[in-house]
Design goal:
By secondary structure, this protein is an alpha+beta fold. The chain contains 19 helices and 14 strands. The strands form four sheets. Strands 1, 2, 3, 4, 6 and 7 form a six-stranded antiparallel sheet that branches. A four-stranded mixed sheet has the order 5-11-10-8. A two-stranded antiparallel ribbon has the order 9-12. Helix 3 packs across helix 4, helix 7 packs antiparallel against helix 9 and helix 9 packs across helix 16.
Length: 516
């Protein structure tokens, strides 16, 4: 869609503030209590503004369409009427004619690519997203399938836009160093860009689908399409018959089916966060198709998040503390996800979270937007000087997306109940993972390193202690630094004193044996 066409479709928005003041200043008359002739009604003006925002993002390119999709999940600072319009970017982005994609199909599948299909519905795509359009087809075996074709020049456009945004972020970081110290925007952007770059290669998406299908085997109501053929810009996959979750009519499924699908979707996502550590990072409503037999089909596996074991366990700790109404534990787990800055105030952060967690613990999706709750955590932690790992940006986006999708299906769902439903399986698998050969080998290596380097490090610390050069930094139960004593720069925690005493005795005996 060209810029000229976009302007024709959306008349310029004209603000009405001046007219509003005139109505208040002049009671009665033609302008009292009614819209001036020729002026758009307030609601119409808001809808017009939302459409212009969406069209602008589409004009800017695929990366900005993705930004619009993210904004559609942020009710904390995006008004509802704008989010309603931006949601169409999930599967109703700007549609281009099929002829624009034929060159891509010929280059990736060969000039005779049509012989692989008995039918292709090219008149209208099934979906139109930021990077690709999807068409329904039938292969030579008679199987219904879909052909996902990347937009021409999308790869170059996304990489160029990434470069521009990185430059802008660097300039912002220089202008606001204090903010950047607790919210490393550049690092968060790098994490998101790493995830998004995988979307530009459909062979990676095909591998992601294969892994996701394995993870879904234990779920009766969660399915993942099968990748039939993949090239970097073309993906042929099995067809998921159904309706996007946000377009399900109230009478299409029973309450029992809705509830079962909703909880299994959440349990499946929890498994990705806490066990597989590989999860759908973009489960917005357009990517969840509900079939008539009561199953949820997760599509579009290009954007997949990956987190390390430590981040996964700490994230699980955050969710568990929320389910148990333990604000202090939740705050401590959150702190372990990041790094305290020199000016951080952990005790104040713990108090902040302890005040709000009781309002979150037993809330359902219709009572609380957990995406907003996550942003509240980020806001409090940044105010208190706690820098959070950039990986939380991907996890947070995924959580915000899935809870928004599930709310369309069953708004009475509670995250705490969903977590309890899968907790037994998660803990069993975590224990088995801990007892695995690889994990045992890693634990042994840590122990050997301690045995080898421990005595020398302890001896060095004792020497520093004897010359009063050793510093202990201690914190109380709330995380506040303990005031230093008169003769030392810090005071060791009481619980650590027996350990130090035993260590000193062992080192002294060890040195005597060496001397003899």
């Amino acid at each position: 869609m060209g810029r000229k066409h976009a302007r024709g479709a959306c008349p310029p928005y004209r603000p009405h503030r001046r007219r509003g003041r005139r109505r208040r200043d002049r009671p009665g008359g033609a302008f009292a209590g009614q819209t001036p002739p020729g002026a758009a009604a307030p609601e119409a003006a808001k809808l017009d503004r939302a459409r212009r925002i969406r069209h602008t993002l589409e004009e800017l390119g695929p990366l900005y369409v993705k930004v619009g999709q993210i904004l559609a999940t942020r009710p904390d600072f995006v008004p509802q009427y704008i989010r309603d319009e931006l949601e169409s970017l999930n599967d109703q982005a700007r549609i281009e004619p099929f002829s624009r994609f034929e060159t891509v199909l010929e280059q990736d599948l060969g000039s005779n690519w049509r012989t692989g299909f008995t039918e292709i519905r090219t008149e209208k795509p099934l979906g139109s997203a930021s990077l690709a359009q999807v068409y329904k087809a039938v292969d030579t075996d008679g199987r219904p399938c879909v052909i996902k074709v990347q937009r021409p020049d999308a790869h170059e456009a996304v990489l160029k836009d990434m470069t521009v945004l990185k430059t802008a972020v660097r300039l912002f970081a220089k202008a606001a160093p204090h903010f950047n110290e607790v919210v490393d925007i550049g690092a968060m952007l790098d994490v998101l860009f790493t995830v998004m770059q995988a979307e530009l290669d459909f062979t990676k998406e095909a591998r992601n689908m294969k892994d996701a299908r394995k993870a879904a085997k234990g779920f009766k109501r969660v399915c993942v399409p099968k990748a039939l053929h993949a090239t970097p810009r073309v993906l042929v996959q099995s067809f998921a018959e159904g309706t996007p979750v946000n377009r399900i009519k109230p009478d299409e499924l029973s309450k029992k089916h809705r509830k079962a699908i909703a909880y299994q979707l959440m349990e499946y996502m929890f498994r990705g966060y806490f066990l597989d550590r590989r999860f759908h990072a973009d489960p917005h409503p357009g990517n969840i198709i509900i079939s008539t037999d009561g199953k949820a089909h997760l599509i579009d596996w290009g954007m997949v998040g990956r987190i390390d074991r430590g981040t996964s366990l700490a994230t699980l700790g955050v969710f568990l503390a929320l389910a148990q109404n333990d604000g202090a534990a939740m705050a401590r787990q959150w702190i372990s996800l990041g790094t305290a800055t020199p000016w951080s105030n952990p005790s104040a952060f713990i108090q902040d979270i302890s005040r709000i967690v009781p309002h979150w613990t037993d809330a359902s999706l219709e009572e609380l937007n957990f995406g907003v709750a996550l942003m509240t955590l980020l806001r409090y932690s940044s105010q208190r000087g706690i820098q959070i790992t950039p990986l939380t940006s991907v996890v947070g986006k995924s959580v915000a997306n899935i809870e928004g999708s599930v709310r369309c299906l069953y708004p009475k769902l509670k995250l705490s109940t969903a977590l309890h439903g899968t907790l037994t399986d998660v803990m069993q698998d975590l224990i088995l993972e801990t007892l695995s050969g690889e994990q045992a080998a890693q634990t042994t290596l840590h122990l050997l390193s301690t045995l080898i380097h421990g005595p020398a490090q302890l001896q060095s610390s004792l020497n520093d202690l004897s010359t009063r050069q050793l510093t202990f930094q201690a914190r109380n139960n709330l995380g506040d630094p303990i005031q230093a004593g008169r003769h030392h720069r810090g005071v060791a925690p009481v619980a650590s004193m027996p350990v130090l005493a035993l260590g000193a005795a062992w080192a002294r005996a060890h040195s005597r044996r060496k001397g003899s």
